[in-house]
Amino acid sequence: MERIAVGLAALGRPAYINLGRDLPGARDVLAMRAATHEVLDAAYAAGVRWVDVARSYGLAEDFLASWLAETGHTDVTVSSKWGYRYVGEWRLNAPVHEVKEHSAARFAAQWAETRALLGVHVDLYQVHSLTVDSPLFSDAALIDALSGLSDQGVEVGFSTSGPAQADAVRRAFELEAAGRPVFSSVQSTWNVLEPSVGGALAEARAVGKRVLVKETLANGRLVVEAPAPLTRIAAAHGVGPDAVAVAAVLANDWVSAALVGPSSTAQLAANLAATRVSLTADEVAELAGLAEAPEEYWRHRSHLGWD
User: Fold this and answer.
1) Which helix (H) or strand (E) segment is 270 a member of?
2) Residue 256 to residue 97: CA distance in whole angstroms
3) How far apart (Å, rounded) are the C-alpha atoms in residues 87 and 93?
4) What is the Cα–Cα distance from 50 to 4, expressed in whole angstroms?
5) Residue 124, strand partner residues
6) How do residues 184-243 score in pLDDT, each as one tens digit?
7) Residues 6 or more apart from 126 whose CB is under 8 A from it?
8) Could you tell me which residues come within 8 angstroms of residue 133 by beta carbon, excluding any fewer than 6 positions away?
């Protein structure tokens, strides 16, 4: 399971934009903590050793910290993100769930919060949803502060979103501080519906950058609304459409790790079946035909409701 990571976006808060979440009847903090621990236990037992969280994922960092403390595991790679603040107050019907701010002050505050919860467990800290118009690119103090994480033994990365992901990836990897690159890792959305960033990610990997892929199931669309070709290929392999969608990500040799975001152990098991799927060249080509125009994909995503 070296190329699989588990993300806690769907488990750290009661509402999220994923379709088909499989959560406990109650979504209070204790129930969600227990569900998170169950998924993490199952993932660890299956051989997964990477967990991805963020400051905006509700209590995801807290849930992960308590699991690490209870289990004593020291061989888990942990990545987190800063830049969004969770403001949903544990409400399903909150008018706003998260607020974005890429500033030196936000970074300093959130890094302190992450460090207080996860301590030395943090291996990778990422700018959350970096876009080409982010003020980060012209903020020398913030760039220097981010670069300083490397001196503390923490890898520095960024995630991307939106139809211009490729531009953000290329621009971010050009950033330098004191003559050295600021970023060594990227986490981008790539799936069979939205593969437009693939070329930029391949370029990044070719020069030694770490490439993580998120939203491998298109926020659940590739399961709940699985296209006919995906369903047919899944049936031929004896797995669900989620496994084939993740296998399509792993078929790219530039992918360091693919993130899955299950909300139950059953979903985790279905996702991990991807490691047993070897897609043929014809199947990969057929799945490539499902790609949507980036603008259309992200427009659709923007209209997904927080469930």
Assistant:
1) helix 265-272
2) 30
3) 12
4) 7
5) 79, 155
6) 999 999 999 999 999 999 999 999 999 999 999 999 999 999 999 999 999 999 999 999
7) 79, 80, 81, 82, 156, 157, 158, 159, 185, 187
8) none
